[in-house]
Amino acid sequence: MSFDVLNNASELLDRRQNPGRLTSMYLKSMGYLYLVAFLSYFVQYPGLSSRSGLIPSEEIFRGSFPQLYKAVVVRKGHDADMFADAVTIAGAFLSTLAAAGIVQHGLLYLSLVAAYNFLYTLGSDFYSFQWDILLLEAGFLTGVCIAPWTKLKWQFEGENEVGGWNIRFLLFKLMLMSGVVKIQANCPTWKNLTALEFHFATQCLPGPLAWYAHQMHPLLLRLGVAATFVIEMPAALLLIAPTHTLRKIGAQLQIFLQILIILTGNYNFFNLLTMAMCIPCMMAGDRESSRRWTIMQRLCCAAFLAACCLDMFAWGTFEDAWNREFYKIRFKMDTKKCEELFGKAIPVAVQGTLLFVMVTGISSAVGSTRTLRLCTSIRVVVCCACIIFTALPLYQLTPNLKKPAFLDIFDAKILRRIERGRGPFSNGYGLFRRMTGVGEKSAANVTEPSGWAGVDPSVVARPEIILEAQINGSSEWRELSFRWKPGRPDAMPLQVAPHQPRLDWLMWFAALGQIGHNPWLVAFIDKLLHGCPAAVDLINEPGIVSGKQNVTLVRAILYHYDFTRVDTEWSRRIPGVEMTTMINGVRPANVWSRRRLWQYVTPLGADSAPLKMSLRQFRIRSGCSDGESQSYRSRTRETWTMICAALFVCLSTEWRRFSSRRQVAKLKIH
Fold this sequence. Notes:
By secondary structure, the chain is of the alpha+beta class. Helix content is 54%, strand content 9%.
């Protein structure tokens, strides 16, 4: 065997040890996330946004992308729905190339962003969620700052630490704003550290373990709320720390929080996206710290977090207004103190990150070729500009924060859009700002508190809309079954993430408002009465979809839901809860208890005057469209076919790489 073969084998083995694998891992993970987003969109498009759907997207297409609409629909004569499907399938194909590591060029990621932004705009109310905006912002920064532009894919040339700072800063912004808005909202559940006593039962789509988490002792749940505040605010600063050890600790804390959320709730790809953004925080480049220096950093980090806990919380024995003593943990930080603190920290964080980007760029350019120094200089300038753009929402976070001079270069309309969370690839975030489903006993301090540790009992009153119908002229009202949202009291919550059933999600939001604020629900009732398969197949009613069952009347009833409880001392303190027994010591007999409130929508028929008036008011076309689109069920089969094809491409590519590395290792040993 020639020496050239051995030298090539040794070079490949050395590359395997190169830390550039984290950059490649991050680029692949973004490909997987976009693949999930496109496939989730594809399977729901007929019922939600096609001409047969609840909010037809053709008018939005014409208004938001007039030039593209003229080119595709008017001049070429293509169908708008077919074009949206083509964009979705093309996005899934490009995502597969990125996830498999076949192509990871910056243009590919910007193409994914452009495609998903187009679909996101067409989706209207069904795609107005923060994680859709976060996916666009993270994808834009990935394409501009991290993905290679001179080669088709990342070639294990070392970590892209310069571009990694942009993703670290985006993650810092996400977590910091999520923590600060909880304090600014003055929600009593966050201030009393009782938010988790409501969260598991009142989140949009609880997970299979949510019922069990709801049974935990109040002390553990309140410690969990305190830990959430620490992870989202002080620990967020570790994500943009100058040393690898501190950033790694911050990333591990964020991953720990996201895993707990995944175990108890269904938040589509959001948690996976947040965990993927932790990967650049673990990039260490070619520098290795000594063991003593690493231990010192960990001790300093522990001391910093401990000092933050002492400043944010107080624990011990406290007296309430009735001179009763309780041992509990109490939240000390108020809105004024929070805004003053972060009003000082945010400018330092932004300026420090810009400094770290420049220092990282200079250190990586030392000793390199002239061409590489030029490329690094361009990358540093681009990354600094992107960090300034990403930081814009942070300067809108607190009123006493002095606006920097560079904000004057941006148009006032752009700043207002960013403030409302609709900015062009730079947005503010505020997850779980307020807890919903708080019962009256928890919100009022009229009588002496009887809850655990001297606070008001955590009465859960989750508002939930239940649709009922009369089938085939029968006078009996039958509850319509959704696939994922709470319905029957004995039905356990299901795991659906990373897919997000958009209709089930919006039903949760509709229960918090009135029918007049939700025209899509009026359209859905009309589709039910006419038996339109594309829209009706979004719920679990195959008889109506197939036409074997005809809906004659529809009404909506508003209920208050709560998880049932295991009979414990702290559960008995909560008025109105329903205790349950366990089947085989594992599964509860009843998962939910519910109380009927009133009719959210009065009985409506296809020819009802109130329905026709609402349809005219919201400019909704009644009945089914000619040439109904594919249904959810048929799209599900096609989606699974694409999932299998994508997994085959990704797994076969990884196996080929693994086989090559094994063969090279054998050659090296030989």
